[in-house]
What we know:
Strand content: 15-25%
Shape: elongated
Radius of gyration: 23 Å
Structural class: alpha/beta
Bound molecules: S-adenosylmethionine
Amino acid sequence: xxxQKSFQNSAPTLYLVATxxxxxxxxxxRAIEVxxxxxxIAAEDTRNTIPLLRHFDISTRVIAHHMHNEKKSSDxxxxxxDSGKSIALVSDAGYPLISDPGQVLVNRxxxxxxxxxxxxxxxxxxxxxxxxxxxxxxxxxxxxxxAQEKECRKQLEYWKEHEExxxxxxxxxxxxxxxxxxxxxxxxxxxxxxxxxxxxxxxxLRGNISEILEVVSECKGEMVIVMEGYxxxxxxxxxxxxxxxxxxxxxxxxxxxxxxxKRTAKEYGISKNEVYRNYFS
Length: 281
Ligand code: SAM
């Protein structure tokens, strides 16, 4: 066990400083003060951080701290702390460590017995979650799913029966594929796509996955996906026999088996795979 009384010791400190996710007015006075006072700012990408610092008249020395050289770069930052310097870690936007570098550094700084202090600010995932209209607690922040199709589907299979709200980050060029995989594996759940948060073109799309898929090709910019959790009770309401009867009814009405399965999955918010498995088992 280790206790850290953040403001009652003289040990060097690593500050984790959250920065705006779009709107610069969300930069807090405390963040500005800390960034001015530390000896060094370690930044995910100095090209993005330097203009931000300039905007707030901050002239502290900036060094790079990338995800791909975190181990090596942490050695240098630890040496600075050893020599009594204080450091602020920032990412391009929002919180460092949240889908961004910093985890290796934070663990090493804690192990070395120095302070790690968060300076709060905007967070894309929390902004999206609270305005999503979906259950805010419990929730799981998943972050980015794998860019590899097979791995992405495997990850979704893992999350499929989790009852808490799920939060994903995704890039605009991958969102359509991602939502197709979600529809296929998670079923047609309610979701919210929150994009360009705090910026001029901020938009929330709230609806079922299939509804959002119809318009998603037009969605640009940065986006957060808030996904309703697994509804155990609803699934349990339907026995396998009932599922088969529903599919059969659609087939009797003239649908192909594939369409009948798709329709049942959509209507009852169950994944196609699950209906398929039950129907053909
Ligand atoms: N460290 C950041 C945080 O605390 O949220 C996340 C960095 S991650 C590399 C970038 C992703 O965060 C984007 O692809 C998007 O999913 C999400 N994001 C960041 N800013 C956003 C914004 N203004 N609106 C919507 N999503 C945003």
